[in-house]
Write a structure and sequence with these properties.
8-stranded parallel barrel, 6-stranded antiparallel beta sheet
């Protein structure tokens, strides 16, 4: 048997037997005749869980904890969709593509910086915290986007950059004019470079020091990142008030939270690394109190590239950040697949501390930055560079600037396996735009721009990204070249093509999200590593009450025959388990919730498996029945919506509730 998500086993969105998804809101690349309130698919009828029907009652007692179950999608607005013909993606373009994200099953859209900026660091150099970069649109466009997101019962968060701003910001321009300027103390100044010597240089490839001389100011200013990004001085209460005011501005516009950039570096103290200081935690807790008191249900996500025991501090007692990135697990997914063994994953999970019940880890495979190798050893970093970035152009800082598909050799088996790990390990997963269709990268572009190329919507001119004309020399005003090589070029890899292919990566991910949404164990459950007879398997149990899933991953490129040993407490709960029963007809069974393939558990609580290369299983331990008891066929748990009810607190309360769709999904084939 196999758990591969084959063409026959993937539920299809189908119109008159033609696989297609109806995208509305400005996308003319795929228009289908079916009605908006219904998707008809051959087979048995179940609800489409990607719809998040707003009329449902949340299965979670506290609807404000929607983030624990959410699937996030990271959008670089400049790269996503240009409807205005400027060559730059914009908020209007993103709004037109929301139904595509909704069809994938996305719960929350995460926007990279959209503020006015000189764009020396792709918008992380903020020139105005309370406006929109003109390339992206204006505040009215943003309000329209937020309303459209909420109409689809989705959420939206945006990057907030509190540590530093641009040297073009009004605050810095005024501060450098005079030591008597009211903005002078908004920044950290010194007559020498001798202070804070124990602080590391983060961008060691480009910055020789954390201090830069400003001729107009007649002093050095402090910056943890680029010299064009002066750090704000959080010892000044006015700066703290300014940042709280920025949060209020965007929350009042209906945004559902923030991914807060570079949180460990807000304060400086001599004799320390200037990271993770108590004063930093004090201010971050103030931010949390402000959000919880005035905007319940909105979230703060911490970006702290540190080991999990250090990130744990940013959850506080459940009174600091709601969410925090788990950076170290990401490179170990790649290490495990390349080494074909699970030790590195097991070790990092054992080092991951428990967090407060109202908090959540956030996991990802790739994002807008490099695949960071800060959280691995020197030897592991050298090995990862050798294996995944043999060309020096693939490397940047202490990481790798490549997309997921090229990192996985464009091998669908490995890509699917990586996504299975992402969706089953603890944490809310993030998908980076374009990775769901297998987009490639361009290592010949400088800095991180190689993984920030335009989204590939179809095979037409400019990949359907922009209507900007191409001149006789083949040039256009698009902000970046579109990937156009033989393997990942837009004529081959694009949204239109993957929507029509029922075996595509997009549909595989959609199915995994659909199945994941039905089980509380993934968003709320505990984590327990499970012993196997070979290190080639990564096996663990996610459990929340009676909902328990055993995830089994073959990390090897070879077929593997192995045994998985159920913990005693799990096997004793198996309905029909009998250590003396050798009758296979009465033996306990486990069902793979992805394919409904059935696996037999032996009388000694052992699961003997023959796994294909990179095969993975999501085995349901919570609905076990004996093979002979067909009357008790497992029924998937009904996963309720995360949306608040009309009139409740939260940004969705006053949104138009979309009518539920009826979906008939094709039966899942057994092999």
């Amino acid at each position: 048997m196999t758990s591969a998500l084959t063409e026959n086993s993937i539920p299809k969105l189908t119109i008159n037997n033609e696989p297609e998804i109806h995208l509305v809101g400005g996308d003319s690349t795929s228009v289908s005749p079916w009605e908006e309130d219904e998707i008809i698919i051959p087979g048995g009828e179940i609800l489409d869980y990607s719809e998040h029907d707003a009329f449902e009652t949340s299965i979670t007692s506290n609807r404000n904890m929607w983030y624990k179950e959410a699937v996030f999608y990271e959008v670089y607005v400049r790269a996503f969709c240009d409807l205005k013909g400027t060559g730059h993606g914009n908020l209007t373009g993103l709004t037109s593509k929301l139904d595509y994200l909704h069809a994938l099953g996305v719960d929350c859209v995460w926007l990279l910086p959209i503020y006015p900026s000189p764009l020396r660091d792709d918008g992380y150099d903020v020139a105005d915290y309370c406006d929109i970069h003109p390339d992206y649109g204006n505040l009215e466009d943003f309000k329209t986007l937020v309303a459209a997101v909420h109409e689809r019962n989705m959420k939206i968060i945006a990057d907030m950059i509190p540590n530093h701003c641009s040297d073009a910001h009004k605050w810095f321009q005024e501060a450098r004019k005079s030591r008597d300027s009211p903005y002078r103390d908004y920044f950290v100044w010194s007559d020498t470079k001798d202070k804070y010597k124990d602080a590391r240089i983060i961008f060691c490839d480009t910055e020789p020091s954390n201090w830069t001389w400003d001729e107009s100011a007649g002093q050095y200013f402090w910056h943890r990142f680029f010299a064009t990004q002066p750090d704000l001085n959080y010892d000044n209460p006015k700066v703290q008030d300014e940042i709280i005011g920025v949060l209020k501005f965007w929350l009042d516009l209906g945004i559902d939270g923030f991914r807060v950039d570079a949180v460990p570096y807000l304060f400086e103290r001599d004799g320390t690394s200037c990271e993770n200081l108590p004063e930093t935690h004090d201010f971050l807790k103030r931010m949390r109190r402000f959000v919880d008191t005035n905007y319940p249900g909105r979230i703060l996500l911490a970006e702290a590239c540190q080991m999990p025991e250090d990130v744990r501090k940013y959850f506080g007692d459940g009174d600091e950040f709601h969410m925090g990135f788990h950076f170290p697990v990401m490179p170990r997914i790649y290490m495990g697949i390349k080494r074909e063994e699970s030790t590195c994953l097991k070790e990092i999970m054992e080092k991951t501390p428990a967090i407060p019940p109202n908090c959540q880890w956030v996991t990802f495979l790739r994002n807008h930055d490099e695949l960071t190798l800060e959280m691995v050893t020197v030897d592991e970093r050298a090995w990862m560079w050798e294996q995944y970035a043999p060309d020096l152009r693939m490397r940047i800082n202490m990481g790798i600037r490549r997309r997921l598909a090229p990192l996985m050799d464009n091998d669908r088996r490995k890509i699917d396996l990586a996504y299975s790990l992402l969706f089953t390990l603890p944490g809310s997963p993030i998908i980076y735009y374009g990775d769901e269709i297998g987009m490639g990268d361009n290592i010949w572009l400088n800095d991180r721009h190689g993984v920030r190329t335009p989204m590939q919507w179809d095979s037409s001119c400019n990949a359907g990204f922009s209507p900007v004309p191409i001149d006789e020399k083949g040039n256009s005003k698009i902000y970046s070249p579109i990937v156009n090589d033989d393997l990942y070029g837009f004529e081959r890899i694009n949204v239109e093509a993957v929507l029509k292919d029922p075996s595509s990566l997009f549909h595989c991910i959609r199915v995994m999200i659909n199945r994941r949404r039905k089980h509380m164990a993934f968003g709320h459950g505990s984590f327990q590593w499970v012993k196997a007879s070979t290190l080639k398997l990564a096996c663990f149990i996610r459990a929340h009450g009676i909902d328990r899933i055993l995830a089994v991953h073959n990390l090897s490129k070879e077929c593997v025959r192995a045994s998985v040993y159920l913990p005693t407490n799990e096997y004793s709960c198996v309905n029909g388990a009998d250590n003396n029963n050798s009758d296979s007809e009465a033996a306990p069974k486990l069902t793979d919730i992805l394919t409904e393939s059935v696996y037999i558990v032996s009388g000694r609580g052992t699961l003997d498996l023959a796994l294909e290369p990179y095969q993975f299983l999501w085995l349901n331990l919570g609905e076990l029945n004996s093979m002979g008891d067909h009357s008790n066929k497992p029924v998937p748990q009904r996963r309720q919506s995360i949306a608040p009810q009309s009139g409740s607190s939260g940004s969705l309360a006053n949104s138009r509730t979309p009518e539920p769709r009826r979906v008939i999904m094709s039966p899942i084939a057994e092999e």
